[in-house]
Amino acid sequence: MSLDPAISARLKRNADGLVAAIAQQRGTGEVLMMAWMDDEALHRTLTTRRATYFSRSRQQYWVKGETSGHTQHVHEVRLDCDGDTILLVVDQEGAACHTGDRTCFDADVLLS
Amino acid sequence: MSLDPAISARLKRNADGLVAAIAQQRGTGEVLMMAWMDDEALHRTLTTRRATYFSRSRQQYWVKGETSGHTQHVHEVRLDCDGDTILLVVDQEGAACHTGDRTCFDADVLLS
Q1: Has residue B84 got a pLDDT over 80?
Q2: What is the ipTM score, two decimals?
Q3: Among A31, B8, B11, B17, which is most buried by a count of CB atoms within 10 Å?
Q4: For A15, what's the count of Cα atoms within 13 Å in the CB-facing half-sphere?
Q5: CB contact under 8 A, B112 and A75
Q6: Which residues make up the binding site for Zn(2+) (chains A, B) (predicted)?
Q7: Residue B37 CB: number of other CB atoms within 10 A?
Q8: How many CA atoms lie within 13 Å of A77's alpha carbon, on the beta-carbon side?
Q9: How many domains is chain B built from?
Q10: Residue A1 pLDDT > 80
Q11: A33 to chain B: nearest residue by CA?
Q12: Residue A106 labeled ligand binder
């Protein structure tokens, strides 16, 4: 099985065939991280409810938390108005960031 | 004046010289939209506190709300761990989406 053609038709992929995916913590609204998905990653995310991305550097699928245990259980998936960005509302287990921070935006404040 | 070299050195731009920028409503945590910035757009955003993006389709700077009045006053700017995504915490005036929706993620729910 692959991604629902009705959804696939609404995606506006970049030159690498990817759309951006933003993960947000359910309830608190924290923006946790941004990563990338192709059609298959989105399909896997929608059907398994485990956030699955496509790694541009490694050119492979990546189930968030598969090695770290820091999984994302997916409650909601939304596509934006121009079809190039996805919002995932998730329950993040532990740290979302590979540095150990709760979110990937915790460490570097440019303006406050 | 241009972007602080210490910040510029931390940016990991894509092939078009851009980083992704996520706008989030202060307080509610709503994810409003995703757009793109180059160094100059980020510099203008940091110095004016008015969210300023770079339009890929029009190849020009774009002060959010300049024509619609739906401005974004910027309270906080954060850079993510790998330097390719910026998070803006803003006060959104009116609708963030050009369709009139509050956010660009309101209309198309793929999973709930």
Answers
A1: yes
A2: 0.96
A3: A31
A4: 3
A5: yes
A6: 81, 97, 104
A7: 25
A8: 24
A9: 1
A10: no
A11: B80
A12: no
Look up tokens 């890929």; give the residue.
B56
Tokens of B76: 């906080």
Q: Give domain status of residue A106, yes or no.
A: no
Query: What is the reported pLDDT for B30?
Result: 98
Q: What is the pLDDT, as a whole number, of residue B76? A: 98
Chain A residues near residue B18 by CB distance under 8 angstroms: none
Q: What is the CATH number of the domain that holds A37?
A: 3.10.20.810
Task: Judge: A81–B108 Cβ closer than 8 Å, yes or no.
Answer: yes
Q: Which residues in chain B touch residue A99, judged by CB atoms under 8 angstroms apart?
A: 81
Return the sign of the alpha-carbon dihedral for residues A108, A62, B105, A90. Answer: negative
Residue B67: domain span: 5-92
| Contact criterion met (CB below 8 Å) for A68 and A97 | no
Q: Which residues have CB under 8 Å from B53's CB, separation 6+?
A: B21, B35, B36, B37, B41, B61, B62, B64
**A-interface mutation test, from B57, B81, B103, most A Cβ less than 10 A away:** B81
Residue A6's CB: how many other CB atoms inside 10 A? 8
* Residue A73: DSSP 8-state: E
